[in-house]
Amino acid sequence: MAKAEKLSASAIQTRLLIGGQWVDGAAGAEIDVFNPYDGSKIVAIAEAREADIDRAVEAARAAAPGWAKLAGHERARLLYKLADLIEADADHLTRLEAMNTGHPIRDCRNLDHPRTVLTFRYFAGMADKIEGAVIPVDAGFLNFTVREPIGVVGQIVPWNFPLMFVSWKLGPALAAGNTVVIKPSEITPLTTLRVGELIEKAGIPPGVVNIVPGYGNTAGQRIAEHPHIGKVSFTGSTNIGRSIVRASAGNLKKVQLELGGKGPNIIFEDANLPAAVGGSAFAIFHNQGQACIAGSRLLLHESIADAFLEKFIGLARSIKQGDPLDPETEMGPLTSKVHHERVLSYVSTVEKEGGKILSGGKVPGGELAKGFFVEPTIVSAGPEHRVSREEVFGPFVSATIFKDEAEAVAIANGTDYGLGAGLWTRDVQRAHRVAKNLHAGMVWINSYKRVHPASPFGGFGQSGYGREMGFEVMREYTQVKSVWLNVDAEIPPFYKR
Ligand code: NAD
């Protein structure tokens, strides 16, 4: 299959979307956006700063009553239309995502793009199914609940899956009747801006979605602290998550946090090894390991460790790195220069701490040396080593050996995070027992990194709180009102005169 063509700069939206207008930032500043394959500049986009966030919030506030008043099935119709437009825009969106993030176009076409469409459709279907309840209370009263939108929601998104995350964030927020100010990452804003064009085309009213790419310490901080934003949904690193919580205290806005992870991936002695090898490679090497739910800690039973590693290393060495626009490419570059340097710094950390590089650990040569590539890297390390505790967020997996189930679970639960975890076994009782004992918001058995818009997504511990997806996320984007109606109850006797 032929290589996909680069998009020309003139085909790329570069301005902010505020109140239905494409505008420059008030300060006139710009952000350069790069292609991580070769470090070249793709375009400069308008930079949103605090004053732009304030304008966007005003636009979202103005649009909020009208959007909330629409019948659920009317919001659904517009969201289905948006999903159709995104589906039809596959060629443009996948090329843009590959150019800006370094995701192989194969993955953009088979995963990111169809999942984005599916997620918008799933939440379109949710828009007219947000039900309250009738609660049995004291005799003579009818008590019922309604779930109302929050109003203006702020959303702050990281750089690793920008297209998919736009559906995770906008889908439920809009279905629930909120209006949105969304800040994509300054590093990968391009597909979010493209979705903004499709939002307009779908006929979603001006001001319902406002898109404001900017830096975290200016635009992001303003969203987190803004007095007229009722909820902030943040996906990103644990440290910035903490600063979002602090900034949110001013108006006590609701906060939902999807943070980092250090996913354990346990291979028991009775696992189907070929399946475990392939699944574990997907767990860590898909998207160059830049996934919060990456299976970045391999825990191997001592009896199968050598056999597993031999096959796993062989697979890792066969992964085809290359131009993300080439459909043959299986692994692209890391998404930014700064991140590339950070991931590579773990090679010396591993060696200093007494771990061993079993495979990879270098920047590939030739054509690829000009981009932000790292070879798929497998290291042996103890559970106490930094590489086994800190989120590397690259194609970098640590292998640790265990003797029995209790030790595997103890090592798996031995970090501050608790996002995703996986185990491979043919023993059904052990599968359930270990799943129950893992400290994680998501557990995959004989699989890894499965995600679906109907299934709750989120973590325990320092991986954050709140959930994306499914009915759970609809609770996050609504607030409950309890209404009491006196049908035929006596007035309480205390004040009877
Ligand atoms: P990051 O925390 O540096 O940035 C995330 C977003 O926050 C960006 O839009 C950034 O501009 C903004 N930001 C930065 N400083 C801010 C501040 N002071 N106030 C407000 N906003 C601010 O994370 P990243 O490097 O873009 O992404 C990688 C991280 O995201 C990893 O830790 C990864 O695990 C996490 N992540 C979590 C999930 C999840 O669902 N749990 C999913 C994907 C990524």
Could you explain the architecture of this structure?
The chain starts with 15 loop residues before the first strand and ends in an 11-residue tail after the last strand. Strand 15 (377-380), helix 12 and strand 16 form a beta-alpha-beta unit. The strands form 5 sheets. It has a 7-stranded mixed beta sheet with strand order 14-15-16-13-12-17-18, with helices on both faces. Strands 9-8-7-10-11 form a 5-stranded parallel beta sheet, sandwiched between helices. A 3-stranded antiparallel beta sheet has the order 5-6-19. The radius of gyration is 24 Å and the shape is globular. The chain contains 15 helices and 19 strands. The protein has helices at 50-69, 72-88, 90-101, 105-126, 162-175, 190-202, 216-225, 238-248, 273-285, 305-318, 337-352, 386-389, 405-412, 428-437, 470-476, and strands spanning 16-18, 21-23, 30-35, 40-46, 134-135, 141-149, 152-156, 179-183, 209-211, 231-235, 254-258, 264-267, 297-301, 356-359, 377-380, 396-402, 420-424, 442-445, 478-486. By secondary structure, the protein is an alpha/beta fold. The longest helix has 22 residues, at 105-126. It folds into 2 domains: 9-259 and 463-482, Aldehyde Dehydrogenase, Chain A, domain 1 (3-Layer(aba) Sandwich), CATH 3.40.605.10; 264-445, Aldehyde Dehydrogenase, Chain A, domain 2. Bound molecules: nicotinamide-adenine-dinucleotide. Nicotinamide-adenine-dinucleotide binds at residues 156-160, 183, 185-186, 215-217, 220-221, 224, 235-237, 240, 243-244, 258-261, 292, 391, 393, 419, 459, 463-464. Nicotinamide-adenine-dinucleotide binds next to helix 7 and helix 8.
